[in-house]
Amino acid sequence: MPHGDAYSLGVENHGSTNSIHIGRSRVVSGLELLLAGAIVIGHNVYHVVPNEVPILVVLCWISVRVRGGGWKDIGLESPRSWWKTVAYAILSAAAIVVLSDVVVGPIAESYLGAEHVSKAFQSPTHDLGWTLRSLGLVWTLAAFGEEIAYRGYLINRAAETGGRTRLAYGAALVVASVLFGYGHYYKGPAGVIASTVSGLVLGATYLLARRNLWVTILAHGFRDTFAIVAMLAGWGT
Q1: How far apart are CA 93 and CA 86, in angstroms?
Q2: How high is the pLDDT of residue 234?
Q3: CA-CA distance, 202 to 220, in Å (whole number)?
Q4: What are the residues whose beta carbons fall under 8 Å from the beta carbon of 69, sequence distance 6 or more?
Q5: Residue 206 confidence (pLDDT)
Q6: Distance between CA atoms of 131 and 48, rounded to whole angstroms?
Q7: Contact 193, 104 (CB under 8 A)
Q8: Is the pTM here over 0.70, yes or no?
Q9: What is the pLDDT of residues 10-57, one digit of tens each?
């Protein structure tokens, strides 16, 4: 066999191996996405699974490690500019307040009933202890945990399932946002819709920021901190 033919055959075999590897990776990502969706629904709708956020964070870590990566692969690396990161986060948080809390939320409530507040934030008095506990939950389980779970993990696994094309990332944004909405099922139908909109804003921010997860962590934390301040001031949620 001529040398050129052998070389060509080697390239073809290498390409075929890569195609098989990519195909398997997409299948595995699809299975991960289905499992994650079942966990979200199982906890929030049927209450047969523990809180989904810690579980999804652990699954995310296992997923990236099996692929030979680390936290930076989902966007948890030091950004080039913290000032820009904070500025983008403030803009994103403001967009959530306007779109979800001011526009979509009230419209949904007018048709579907008022949103419910999480039991974790329910208290007869909003004293210093309540404020500190609430802020602790906001910046750990909500901002840090949910952003790793829903943006860092679910968007990337959904996008990989679709081949990481632009269309795949668009579909991944929608899928992750809908699941994020159901992650707030306790709020009622209006709350699910409003939370889905919040998820869309956070997901779009994540993608526009080139998957810089610190932007959405800060945006999520800023928005929820504003909600705590609003409750303290008697402005509602």
Answers
A1: 10
A2: 76
A3: 8
A4: none
A5: 98
A6: 30
A7: yes
A8: yes
A9: 444 555 667 777 788 999 999 999 999 999 999 999 999 999 999 999
Separation of alpha carbons 157 and 74, rounded Å = 10
**How far does CA 32 lie from the centroid of its chain?**
15
Burial class (CB in 10 A: 0-12, 13-18, 19+), 81: exposed
Distance (Å, whole) CA 111 – CA 167: 32
Low-confidence ranges of the chain (pLDDT < 70): 1-17, 236-237
For tokens 């301040």, name the residue.
229
Cα 76 off chain centre by: 13
Q: What is the pLDDT of residues 97-107, one digit of tens each?
A: 999 999 999 99
Give the ranges where 67-188 is alpha helix by DSSP (H).
82-96, 105-112, 128-137, 156-161, 166-182
Query: How many angstroms separate the Cα of 198 from the Cα of each of 27, 46, 77, 217?
Result: 29, 23, 24, 13
3-state secondary structure of 183: coil
Packing angle, helices 52-66 and 3-44, rounded to 10:
170
Q: Could you tell me which of 201, 87, 86 has the C-alpha nearest to residue 150? A: 201
Distance CA 12, CA 26 (A): 21
